[in-house]
Specification:
- It is a single chain.
- This protein has about 250 residues and is α/β, with parallel strands linked by helices.
- Helices cover about 35% and strands about 15% of the residues.
- It contains 9 helices and 6 strands, in the order H-H-E-H-H-E-H-H-E-H-E-E-H-E-H.
- It has a 4-stranded parallel β-sheet. It has a two-stranded antiparallel sheet with strand order 3-4.
- Strand 5, helix 8 and strand 6 form a beta-alpha-beta unit.
């Protein structure tokens, strides 16, 4: 036990874990990815409209996509911190009590990545969220969907362009005999990914496809501004070097 404590202490001193948002050191043994102060900055999503989706009529999000929530998403989406996605899935589970209208599904269905994007990232962040949520809620995960084509980046597209870009971009791996499914994703902006996933599930025979995401972004009419994109990138601050590391 003494050796384990010493090893953990030494490792924490050499390469301390930092908060994904404020970059301050996390206490030794803390799970992260946020410190207590930044965890309190997560803003629960309080808006009920689905956003005008047709095939996915009910959409709920655990948090608003701003501040700490943006930093958590950047941690698991762009910095390879899979543990951040696992934590986010647990937080999604904790927020479910606010959404009784999300009736229990047959399974959780993560939004799929195109094979090229999956090779690039090494994992599907939506699957990590779904698996963590599954462990907390005892709802099985089923990877029922695949991407049928590579799509353009969504960042600089307006809502209608996003919907068109992802239309018919997914299909189910098998026929489904009815059933309600939750589509799990990290962030919803226009709802295009959820709509495409719901379309594929319903066409395969599902009775209902509902959306549940970690965070939802509020957008104005027109394109997502480059200023907003820059603000999101600013949240993705480079990781601090380990103590004792020399600057090059």
């Amino acid at each position: 036990m003494g050796w384990e404590w010493a090893r953990e202490t030494l490792w924490h001193w050499i390469w301390p874990r930092t908060c994904a948002h404020c970059r301050e050191d996390l206490p030794k043994g803390a799970d992260g990815p946020l410190c207590r102060a930044c965890l309190l900055l997560l803003v629960p999503w309080e808006f009920s409209p689905s956003g005008g989706l047709k095939r996915c009529p009910l959409l709920r999000a655990a948090y608003l996509y701003r501040g700490s929530a943006v930093s958590v998403v950047h941690a698991f989406k762009y910095r390879g911190q899979k543990s951040a996605a696992k934590a986010a899935g647990l937080w999604m589970a904790a927020e479910l009590a606010r959404f009784p209208e999300l009736e229990r599904p047959r399974a959780l269905v993560p939004v799929p990545l195109h094979p090229s994007r999956l090779r690039e990232r090494g994992y599907n962040q939506s699957l990590l969220l779904a698996e963590s949520l599954s462990r907390a809620c005892s709802i099985p995960v089923r990877e029922l969907l695949v991407r049928t084509r590579k799509t353009k980046p969504q960042l600089e597209l307006n809502r209608q362009e996003r919907l068109k870009n992802l239309q018919h971009s997914m299909q189910a791996r098998q026929r489904l005999e009815g059933g309600r499914f939750w589509i799990i994703d990290d962030v919803c902006t226009s709802g295009a990914s959820l709509e495409a996933a719901a379309e594929a599930l319903l066409d395969a025979g599902a009775t209902q496809a509902l959306g549940y995401v970690f965070a939802r972004q509020l957008i104005e009419k027109g394109r997502v501004s480059s200023a907003r994109a820059s603000a999101a990138q600013a949240c993705a601050k480079p990781a601090r070097p380990a103590r004792g590391a020399r600057a090059k």
